[in-house]
Amino acid sequence: MWDTKSGKLEHSHYLFSPITCAVIFGKMVLIGTEGGKIMYYCTETFTVKWETVGHLENVLSLALNEKTAISASTVPDLRVWQILEDSVSTVPIEIPVTRPVRCMVIYKEKLYFGDDGVNIKVFDFKSENIDKLKNHDTDHGSTDCMLIYKNCYLITSSYNLDSGRTSINFRSLEDHSYLFTIRCSIYGPITCMSCDPSRDQADTPELFCGGCELGVINRSWMIKALIITRRRRSKCYDWKHCKTNM
Q1: Within 13 A of 96's CA, how many CA atoms are on the CB side?
Q2: Which of 88, 171, 205, 236 is the most exposed place for a label (fewest CB within 10 A)?
Q3: Are 157 and 189 in contact (CB under 8 A)?
Q4: Cα–Cα–Cα angle for 19, 25, 30, nearest 5°?
């Protein structure tokens, strides 16, 4: 754990297996390892609340909210966990998957997850039904990362396995309608994304995309793209028009 203001190391915790993925919710961090172990860590007290061996293979992706944790491995499989005060218990919900889940997020009563298929899967915890949202314009692609932006938008990466072209797709969370796409043919696959919706200055970098390079999209451009999209002028943008230099 690092202090971002001072740049100093605050705390470290040794694990026997390499970390393969991690997700943050509030002051809690859910960590997955190469050995199939899942660890729930508190950044306020620097303590491990609980840990369990959730899978026989590497943990590939995780999702977390206040009461629920979801883990996926390379098998493929998905497991749902109920978070208690200092322990965890399995939830008897079967989410059918046919490919390893590369990324996932929880929003309200739904789980969004991506894999090596052309669609984003949306699992409804209440009805236990799965809907599909097309995330690629071809029949061969992968979805390596996704995030919820300001509780309004679903942002997903899209990598064309045939052409090597990468895209970032924006959808409305309210009705899952497609909004717009940022395309780039030389950027390479985007394997992770992060954003800081608390920033208010228009030219402040807000969406960070990682892979072979670091890409940064500022807030003013994202607002402009949403306005243009609502006016139905355009739905596809080139990366060079929205990337900022670090």
Answers
A1: 5
A2: 236
A3: yes
A4: 25
Which residue, among 173, 216, 210, has the nearest Cα to 196 in the 3D structure?
Answer: 216
Q: Which long-range contacts (CB under 8 A, 24 or more apart) does 209-217 make?
A: 209/157, 209/168, 211/166, 211/187, 212/187, 212/188, 213/187, 213/188, 214/246, 215/187, 215/190, 215/239, 215/243, 216/243, 216/244, 216/245, 216/246, 217/182, 217/242, 217/243, 217/244
Helix (H) or strand (E) holding 70: strand 68-73
46-49 long-range contacts (CB < 8 A, ≥24 apart) are 46/1, 46/10, 46/11, 46/13, 48/13, 49/86
18-40 tens-digit pLDDT: 999 999 998 899 999 998 999 99
Take residue 34 and report the two structure tokens written for it. Answer: 């190469």
The verdict on whether omega for the bond into residue 76 sits within 30 degrees of 0, i.e. cis, is yes
In the numeric block, which tokens belong to residue 187?
């950027």
Predicted TM-score (pTM) of this structure: 0.85
Strand pairing category for 178-184 and 236-238: parallel
For the segment 100-117, what is each residue's pLDDT rounded down to a tens digit? Answer: 999 999 999 999 999 998
